[in-house]
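Researcher: Let's try something more involved. This one mixes different molecule types, so please make sure each is placed in the same coordinate frame as the others.
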Amino acid sequence: MEKLCSSMSFYVLGLLYTTNEKIRQMKRPSLLLIALLIVLGGKAQDFLNQATVNGSFQIDAQLYRSDAAIGITDSSIAGRKIGVNGYGNIIYSLGNFKAGMRYEAMLTPMLGFDPMQEGSGFPYLWASYSTDFIDVTVGNFYEQFGNGLIFRSYEEWTLGYDNSMNGMRVLLNPSKGVRLKAVYGSQRFYWQKYERNNRGLVRGVDAEFSFNEILGSLEDSPLRIIVGASAVSRYQRDADPIYKLPENVGSMAGRINIGLGNFTLMTEYAHKINDPSALNNFIYKEGHALLTSLSYAQSGFGVVLQLKRVDNMGFKSDRAYVGNALDINFIPPINRTHAYSLTGKYPYATQPNGEMGMQLQIHYKIPKGSLLGGKYGTGIALNLSQVNDIARNPIHDTILIGQPGTMGYTSDFFKMSGDIFFRDLNIEIDKRFNSKLKGIFQYMNLLYDIATIEGHAGDPVVNAHIGLVDLTYRLSSRKAVRVEAQGLFTREDKGDWAAMMVEYTIAPKWFVALSDQYNYGHPEKDQRNHYYTASAGFTRNATRLALTYGRQAEGVVCVGGVCRQVPASSGLTITLTTNF
Amino acid sequence: MIKKSFVFVLLLLLGSTVWAQESVLPKVTIKTLDGKNFNTSEIYNDGKPMILSFWALWCKPCQKELDAFMDNYEEWQEETDVKIFAVSIDDARSTARVAPMAKSKGWDFEILLDANGDFKRAMNVNLIPHTFLLDGNGKIVSQHTAYFEGAEYELYEKIKKLVGK
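Model: All components are placed in one shared frame. Result:
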């Protein structure tokens, strides 16, 4: 039998026999049996032939050394000379069936990661079956409803953030243009296993309707309408000795996306019932969030205006927890994410307790051949964003704003406070001078309420000017030199910075780079440090090895709206990543 | 009897050809710039090669790579019919900014939005830029992380090899 099933053709033969059997109206059962075995055997072979396995591995390791100048002594290292964050991800798929796992080992985690991350194991294990109609996942999964205002489960490896769900998810596509989702489960909390009542449970449903697809006749209409709605609830037992807390906290959100020609309007509004928590200081006020954007895009020109209002919208699966984990929802910060070391030195993080913000971004490409456009055209991007606190009024003369156990405060939907959390005005010019030389030039004016955003109570607001030049010169078709020069000028916090970087690349495999960040304007003279690094890397296909030796300045690293405080460190960093 | 079997074998062969042409990319639902759902198994270029590149607004090397692709796209398409799919992994904070930015740059690619990283995870993408070269059936021929100036030439050599030029 084994021999018979060793090739695909026998599978075909098997099917043939079965069909013939049917034609003969199954007069010879023994032959049918043989045919069936051949079919099954053939299928088993297919299971092996058609299955695919793919995955990836990443290891980030740091070897620390003491460096008295930047305040790192043997006692602050405390014997932990090595930090290693590693993981491996494997996905097995066979037709409609898939299963996957991720193994993580953080022994010990690198500096700047939460000590709770120390551990190893399989935090992400799942299996799913999906057809065009249904998709069921058991185990761990990630999901987002709309913009995530009431539900988003995701991971950011580089930040050590993971709020994956552990439960079940069902996705349905009952007809063209209709998509339904249902999820339930508990959320990951580092390595702490879910046990009854040690944290909350999350349940949610979402529906989305794309009218142009539902009404097939509108498929090519210039007017496009997509409507969606979702509901999420959290159950957590009330064991509070003082307050009577809601055990089931419900939230709802509705969204609409209207496109007309080159215009797109996107709006989502979310509402949450009262949810006294450590995050909002146990007030019984309801929460809401509004996110809206209007954009226009055509070749060579694009503009987008975004508005946001958030009031008491922190939503965690443990109401007692205030750290960087267990978030049920995601309130996107609406400001530009910067890509350079000094422009990204003061990144904004959403204030879920209340904020009102706007962002305007304009992109324009001065056409090729015009006076300013030159031979290659010139790109200009202007971006302005500002976030203020919301205006809060006391609910009663005798009750303080935000007093625990009360309704907290009242807030006029259209009013904002004069307190600016963050403002970023930046302009970027992208210019190619000739076939060899191109550059990016950027100016940024920043206002940053360090006391609110980073919790440095009492520190004055940082007002900074930042400028940068990034030039790339192609030496040959595969070799290039890139030079980055940046300056950050401020009287507050750590004062002025200058940064310089030189990188030499040989495509597609090699790079070497030298960089220095110099805190020359630090108010205290003995802290005017250089943070130099030397790095080199090798990339072959999807395998990348990079080594960096030097000092890492204390700062905030943000990806996708979540930020992590990184302490100063000194030593060798190794990153190895591969994918298959 | 023989005739019927013959027809059946023929049908089966046809069936298996259809199967072979189906994209082997993971089936994940992401979004188009219009906000419509898009199943990644529909990434298809009529049997011709494809480039699948993961990028984000906060990733400068990604944008440099896509600019370099754009500079050569017309020529590449003329010679090899290659099609580029650029998947933005920007999350909800920036998804509204992707279309205005990409269109103003004149990127003539098929741009897709993977706001919660579902496609990224299914393709095992850790660092971006991460660029895949796919054959006409959606099978991965080669992949590369990071972008250095001039890497597009090596990629183009691979595309040419794939179409036998």
